[in-house]
Amino acid sequence: MSSRYRVEYHLKTHRKDEFIDWIKGLLATPFVLHAVSHDEEDTEDLTTSQRVKSQYAEILKDIELLISNKIEFDARNFCNDENYLNESSLGRSRLNLLVPSIGTFFTPLPLEKAFLWEDSVKAISARRMVAPSFNDVRRLLNTAQIFHFIRQKRLGDKNGKPLRLVTFDGDVTLYEDGGSLITRNPVIPLIIKLLKANVFVGIVTAAGYDEAKIYERRLGGLLESVHHCRELTWQQKRNLTIMGGESNYLFRYYETAEGNEGDESFNNEDGEETENNQACGFEPIDRSTWILESMSKWDGSDIQATLDFAQKTLKTLKKRLILPPEVTIIRKKRAVGIVPGRVIDPISGEEKVIRLAREQLEEIVLTLQSTLENYPPAKRIQFSCFDGGNDVWCDIGGKNLGIHALQQYYSPENPIDPAQTLHVGDQFAPMGSANDFKARLAGCTLWIASPEETVDALTRLTAD
After folding, report:
1. Residues 140 and 235 in one domain
2. Residue ranges making up the domain that contains 339
3. Domain count, the chain
4. Catalytic residue among 17, 119, 171, 391
């Protein structure tokens, strides 16, 4: 009963990625046709593996060509304005016909080469009992995107489009959910390596604060490492930014002469706060210098009305779902959310965080999303509703706008192309409850499932 429930739950539409599922379906055919008994002779098993491997590679090569065809088709029929921020490219390329919900591809993806690499590491074609899975395809797409940027780096500025901007989500991408970036985190040397290569780095997070102190505490290990890195120039250090609240607050790294001028606190290797006497941190950037023209046209009354309506909806849902009284609704300047409170464990006597059920979180976020989509003031602006793992938020704006703002802010005269942008995040699955999803509209993406995957991807991306 439990297994059947779990399977049926994961088949819900809002949890599926149609493109990945489509690829899975294509790869299932050679798997089924060549599934044989596991006790066959070694020579026969090797022959079967080679045959399956060849057919997997052939299918992925065909998908690779379909993606290239779609890129060419969209280039011929695409209007060069900001519409790509709000909807996928129009038109009916072959891939659009096969996968109606397909979005925009900004670069070709060498899927055949990526599969051969993944197969050499994980022996996907040697499996007889487990077909290529969702995670297999997700990692395959990540590897293909990494291989593309490695090739562009080799081609250089003259012949290619090398990577210029990398953005990251925070929780579950750079550090564990609710954690912070401490100095021993293995992702820090890789971020510094990006900065050394003159790649702009932005942390585009849903955490929305109009003051830098909270960001400085959570990213203390990165701040300290960047500050003490003698291999980075001052300008390269300044290429590190934070876009908070999806697309609402921009902060940029700064530092002054060493001395007792700053009182910033950082996290040491044990995760404990320590005083740091080096004057460095994140300074707020005036909104007028980076905000997109489309965002500047939003009416303040529409923003407040949207947040008011979202807050009212959350109050109704809290009552309807009979959530504990400790669950709190929090209102910020440009966001509103429902978060779990703390209770005393009757057994241990210790304080613990209330855990909301997965079904409760998704009921809240999907209801909030669908309700706001039909609310007139919300239609005149952009907003993002998402499930943060144990809370639900509605933010004004979206990560597509945050990334696009960075593309223009870093290079006003020559905005960074989406084909030279890479966003790394963990929330891409359902459009209504994953705030990284919109990042696909502003650049290339890597869909990871843990900080360890981020480290692995950056290790390959920055390898010499």
Report:
1. no
2. 163-464
3. 2
4. 171
